[in-house]
Structures are given as C-alpha cells and as structure tokens.
Write a structure and sequence with these properties.
The complex is a heterodimer of chains A (221) and B (260). Chain A is built from 8 helices and 2 strands; from the N terminus they run αααααααββα. In chain A, 36% of the residues are buried. Chain A has one domain. In chain A, 56% of the residues lie in helices and 2% in strands. The longest helix of chain A has 31 residues. In chain A, strands 1-2 form a two-stranded antiparallel sheet. Chain B has 260 residues and is mainly α. Chain B has one domain. Chain B has 11 helices and no strands. The chains are: A mainly alpha (221), B mainly alpha (260). At the A-B interface, helix 8 of A face helix 4 and helix 5 of B.
Chain lengths: 221, 260
C-alpha cells in the first residue's frame, strides 16, 4: 500500500468530467422528479450526499467482512437505515419540504447512484478515499440538481427559493411564467440540453456513433 | 445525376407547391397580420438553419418554409414576438436540427413548436379559421398525393375513420375543419409520417381516432389544440406502426416461403 491516493482528483473528478448524472446518466429519476423548485432540489441533494458519503464509509469499513454472495442485501440494508434516519430528520425539522419530496427521499435507497458508488468504489477501497469519492459524486449530483432546479423555478415561476426574482406580468412586471417548466418534460429537455452542452465542451465524453452515414454517391453541388 | 431529379429539395419544392393554395387563402383572409406571422416564423427558422449550416455543416432546406407556414398558421394568437421566437427555436432545434436536418428528424418540428407553445402558454387563444381556408386544404391534398410527396394511404385512413366518427356523431363540424388543416399541415409530412402502406393507413386512422377521443373527452380545449395534440401523439406512434407493418410482412413471407 505504498501508492499515494490523490484525494483532490477523487473529489473533483465526479464534478464535471465523470459527473454521475450527465456522463453516466445515473439517478435521473429523482433528479427529474424533485427539481420543480430550488428548495426541494437542494434538500434532495444534501440528503443524497449525506447518505452516499456515510454509506460508502460504513460499507468500506466492513468491506472485508461482507460475503460476496449477499453483498447487495448488506449494502441496501445499510443504505436503507441511513435513508430512514434522514427521512425522519426531514420530517421533524423540514416538514413542508419533506411533504414536497414525498416518496423520493425513501427512494434514495434504490437510487442507482448510491448502489453504483458503493458497488464500484467503496467495496474495493479504504474508508477515506471511499468517503471522498462518495462526497464528490454527491456534489456532482447536487450540481446538476441545483442547476436544473434553479432554471425550472426561475423560468416556471420567476422565483428563486420562493423569492420573486423576475417581476410577474400579473403584478405589473414583464415576465410571463413558462408553465411548461413546472411539468416533467421540461426536466428532460433541460437535462438533455445540459448533456449536449457538456459534451460539446468536452468531446471525449461523447459516445461513439452507432451508425455511419452512407457516403455520398454524387459530388456535392 | 445518379439519383435523377428527386432529391430532398425537389420533395420540399413539391410540398411548397402543394401548400400554396392553403397558404394563399390563409394569407388572403388573415391580411397583414398573417404575413407578419409567416415572416417572423420563416426568419427564425432560417436563422437556425443558417446556424446549423455554419456549426455542423448541415445543408439548409427549403422545408423550412413548410414548417414556417404550419407554425404561423396554427400557433396561438397574440403570443408576442419573444414567445413565438422561443417556441419556434425550441421546435426547430430540438425537433429537427439536432437530428441532422430535414429528412432525419423523428418528429415534425412544427408539431413540437406548437405543442411547446400550447403547453407553455396555456392562457393564449388558439386560432380559428374560416371554412374556406379549410376547404383550401383539399387542393393541397390533391397536389400532394398526385405528385407523390404526401402519403395517400394516410389520407385514406384518416378520412375513412373521420367519416365513421362523423356518422357516429363523435366529430362535429368545427373540429373536422381544423383537424383537416392539421392533417395536411402536420400529419401528412413525408418525413415523419409512417413509411409503410399499412402503417400509413393505421397512422391516419389513429390520428382521427385521437381527434375524436379528445373532442368528446377533453373539456374546454380549442379544436386546433385537440388536433395538434392528436398529431403529436400519432407521429410518436408512427415508427411503432411501421415496425408492426414490417413484422407482419416478414411473418407473411416466412409462412409462404419458409425461412428467409
């Protein structure tokens, strides 16, 4: 174990270059469902980051004691216990946001992002790097959630965190809310556009084309 | 000239020729306001075609005019320039240009733009046409089918189902007129409608059936809104219909000739 671990790289890699949402398209179910307002997006991001970091730490600590055949069950039990704790905390202190998030906090248990990181990284690495990696992935997820949540709330209601930013046309301003932004399809559009933008800036993320267009038979006019 | 006269732009020109009667009647009854809408739509779409030509070397197409006509005719009224530009940009870029330009798109860009405007700004009224504009859709159908750029089987399926629905009392007069205009402008697009004959029959029938369903069950919807929603859903189903038609054809072939 002489090799040094580049914590900085583990932490920053999942932010853009290996972002779990836009590169690996993991965890988009919750990412699309809870981003109607910025407040729910931030709460969801924090919950997921906490659960992910703690579960990666716990699983990494007992990684040599988990039998391979039942490892998924063990991982889910650990994640689910943490999720229940977070859910109770939210219900106790942020009852309103907890109602808005409804079932999605509970579904962090089955979020493919959490299982993916525990399965791919925490199972093979010491607790330190595992937690840093999980935290970085949580931050990458949070980044996308906050961008999409912010855009949807800003253009759907003209608000940010419930504070009116753009003056509404009803109240004498100039902004007419784009109510499509509050519907589920807009989250897909925004995520798609975001993926497109990131892959245009970082072409190495783009997937290889599945089909090659046929060569032109005639010379171009 | 390895492919003869028929390339993509010939098809686009024929489509424009087919739409001319409809466009002229609409411009005549709409006046300066209609000309301004058509000009704005054509300008925005043209700019996007130019952008994609410069950025991704996609040849611009005259089909931009067809999309512009459909959007200008069917978009909700009094939207204002900014919202029109937003909706048209969304429809043209996400519906057509990201796929590689006209001919490679999966959905009609005009349908996408109209659905975006309709769902995004539900407070605005949908347009209402005079009956003579709707009648002008008939020469459009005739020219389109005669030159082969519009699928005849699609019209046959749609009109047959429409007659059945009319006889059954599900479809009323105004809805039929608007559904006819939308059928010509959006559904009969040669790129995004079904490509097999059986698929076309079912595509047309599905469109009319959806219009009938919405007309009887969607309270408070404008006729154009009903028709555009039906066109969107039907065009999303078109690849599936083609797939089904091909599967049936293959199964038939296998039954007749054994394993092929």
């Amino acid at each position: 174990m002489a090799r040094t671990i580049d914590y900085r790289k583990i932490l920053t890699e999942p932010l853009i270059r290996q972002n779990p949402v836009t590169l690996q398209i993991l965890g988009i179910c919750s990412a699309l469902a809870v981003t109607t307002t910025l407040a729910t997006a931030v709460t969801m991001s924090v919950s997921l980051t906490v659960v992910l970091t703690l579960s990666a730490g716990v699983i990494s600590m007992i990684r040599r004691h988990i039998p391979d055949t039942i490892r998924l069950i063990v991982q889910i039990v650990i994640v689910a216990s943490l999720v229940i704790v977070i859910d109770q905390l939210l219900q106790a202190y942020f009852a309103e946001i907890s109602r808005a998030l409804s079932v999605y906090v509970g579904l962090i248990t089955t979020n493919c992002l959490v299982l993916g990181r525990t399965e791919a990284f925490a199972r093979h690495n010491a607790p330190g790097p595992a937690m840093v990696d999980a935290f970085g992935n949580g931050l990458g997820y949070s980044l996308i959630l906050i961008i999409i949540g912010g855009l949807r709330e800003l253009f759907g209601k003209g608000e940010l965190f419930g504070v009116q930013v753009l003056p509404l046309a009803d109240a004498g301003g100039w902004f007419t809310p784009l109510s499509l932004m509050l519907l589920a399809p807009s989250a897909f559009f925004l995520l798609g556009l975001l993926v497109w933008a990131i892959r245009s800036l970082l072409p190495e993320q783009a997937e290889a084309p599945e089909h090659v267009p046929p060569l032109r038979a005639e010379p171009a006019e | 000239m390895t492919r003869g006269l028929w390339n993509r732009e010939t098809v686009a020109l024929m489509l424009i020729a087919a739409y001319l009667p409809l466009a002229l009647f609409w411009l005549w009854s709409g006046g300066a306001d209609a000309v301004a809408r058509l000009g704005l739509a054509a300008l925005v779409i043209g700019v996007w075609h130019l952008v994609f030509m410069l950025a991704r070397a996609q040849a611009p197409s005259l089909a931009a005019l067809v999309s512009a006509l459909a959007i200008a005719m069917l978009a909700p009224e009094e939207l204002g320039v900014l919202r029109m530009v937003l909706g048209i940009s969304f429809g043209v870029v996400m519906g057509e240009l990201v796929f590689g330009g006209w001919g490679r798109n999966v959905v009609n860009p005009a349908t996408i733009a109209l659905s975006f405007l309709g769902f995004g700004f539900p407070a605005f009224d949908w347009p209402v046409f005079d009956p003579q504009v709707a009648w002008a859709a008939i020469p459009a159908i005739v020219i389109g089918v005669a030159t082969g750029v519009m699928p005849g089987a699609l019209f046959a399926g749609a009109i047959l189902t429409g007659l059945v629905a009319y006889a059954g009392g599900v479809l009323g007069g105004p809805v039929i007129l608007m559904a006819g205009i939308v059928l010509v402008l959006l559904v009969a697009d040669p790129v995004t409608s079904a490509a097999t004959t059986l698929g076309r029959w079912i595509h047309g029938a599905l469109y009319t059936a959806l219009v009938a369903l919405f007309a009887s069950g969607w309270a408070g919807a404008a006729p154009v809104q009903i028709a555009v929603a039906a066109a969107l859903l039907a065009s999303l189903a078109a690849p599936l219909l083609d797939e089904a038609a091909l599967a049936i054809w293959l199964a038939k072939r296998r039954r007749r000739h054994g394993r092929t």
